[in-house]
């Protein structure tokens, strides 16, 4: 019981950090994430005028990642595969930036950081509702496990004292 509760607690803490600002912060909102991603999108439109195909690819990724009309199986697959897909797109974006700019320049590093921040924001936005749902289901599982641990501890103390 103790291992179950501890393992459940570790999983719950991880999910908690995905929907809150840090470990002890207030809960994020979907509107905050959308506004943040929208701000990055505006910055990218201004910064990537010389690479319109890169900008179009990044916007297409955001649209695919946040499409709410997908079915349950498609949403599950998107949740599982979005980080690796974002990484592949990040590597492709670096190749595009390398062909447009000189690697190591301040502009190149700024563009690289902007792409990285944007992709992370899109991934967070795409996974946010799923993590909220997982967290609520986690509570349904974790609370009975805590009571089970409490009952087994009481049973253990009584059994030790009876023998």
Number of helices: 5
- Classify the secondary structure makeup into a structural class: mainly alpha
Q: What share of the residues lie within helices?
A: over 70%
Strand content: under 5%
Radius of gyration: 22 Å
Described by strand count, sense and barrel closure, the largest sheet is: none
- What order do the helices and strands follow? HHHHH
Amino-to-carboxy terminus distance? 22 Å
Strand tally is: 0
Shape: elongated
Whole-number average pLDDT? 81
Query: In terms of per-residue confidence, which ranges show pLDDT below 50 for 5 or more consecutive residues?
Result: none
Describe the model.
- The chain has 163 residues and is mainly α.
- Helix content is 83%, strand content 0%.
- It contains 5 helices and no strands.
Q: Brief description of this entry?
A:
The protein has about 160 residues and is mainly α. It is about 85% helix and about 0% strand. The mean pLDDT is about 80.
SSE layout and pairings?
Elements: H1 2-19, H2 30-47, H3 52-65, H4 72-100, H5 106-162
Helix pairs in contact: 1-5, 2-5, 3-4, 3-5, 4-5
